[in-house]
Amino acid sequence: MVAITISGANGRAPSIAKKSFPLTIEVGPEDTVETIKKKVATKCPKLYTSRQKLALKGAKAALTDELTVKDIGLASGGELDIKDLGPQLGWRFVYFVEYLGPLLIHPLFYYLPQYIYGKAFEHSELQKYAYGMIMAHFVKREFETLFIHRFSHGTMPARNILKNSGHYHILSGLLLAGDLYRPGYGAAASSMKNTIMSNPTFLNACLGAFTFFEISNLHTHLTQRNLRPAGTKTRAIPRGYGFNLVSCANYFFEICAWTVVLVMTRSAACALFLGAGGFQMAVWAAKKHKNYKKEFGKDYPKGRKAMIPFIF
Length: 312
Description:
The longest helix is centred in the C-terminal third of the chain and has 29 residues, at 268-296. The protein has helices at residues 33-43, 91-111, 113-116, 125-147, 161-180, 200-227, 249-265, 268-296; strands at 2-8, 23-27, 52-56, 78-84, 88-90, 155-157. The chain is built from 8 helices and 6 strands. Helix 2 (91-111) runs antiparallel to helix 4, helix 5 runs antiparallel to helix 8 and helix 6 (200-227) packs antiparallel against helix 7. It has 2 domains: 2-86, Roll (Ubiquitin-like (UB roll)), CATH 3.10.20.90; 89-299, no CATH class. Its EC number is 1.3.1.93. One of its GO terms (cellular component) is endoplasmic reticulum membrane.
């Protein structure tokens, strides 16, 4: 066993446990950073493991939980810095809250137009299709969150939940619902009569394409789930349907599904949501693609793009 001293980063001990630091714990050379965090949490219960950022003395980069004491060069003892990351929320809870917003907001606009638009009116077939497709999308997202996704990072700062939820609650919730279910898209609207947006063949084609892309997206999530055994953070190269062309096939099919909604509705709010979401997914895809190539090197398929086949 060796002794490791843990003190506050930049000389500032975590405010919720100032009197406990500097703190000395004993570990073995093969113990992991996660083990160190658990021992810290045992002595300072308020600093549960996901609130802790451990780094080598004077360094800024966080040590990953899988590294051993020997890996970080402290097999003979030494010092670590600790930083309190603040209250944390589990990613599964965060995603559940994000997708719950549209599931609550869209029914309000759809079923209570008299209170929102000042009058009741008959919904057009387009509005009925759009409502069913959007609700199905977010029900699917909730199902995936609860039963399919495995998260490499367990938590995020609690303060970020408002920012994360805002994208869905405002853009795909209030703005999209407010635009789609207004009287201008209603059955009696002159702009809807005798147009392609009231054509059953067009609407059914859009529904078919949307369903195809949603099922494809679900398939990619199942592929990703099977890459990571339960309870681990194992990473592997995704292969198979969609992934033979891009690193982030799930993002590609997500964008395709929402593009169908945009083509069907011609909604400015849908275009805004798709544009904002597409940009963010492109940023994430570029980062993931780069990390895949760095991690797997020559084993990673050379012909793949990040998110859009043959383009990006």
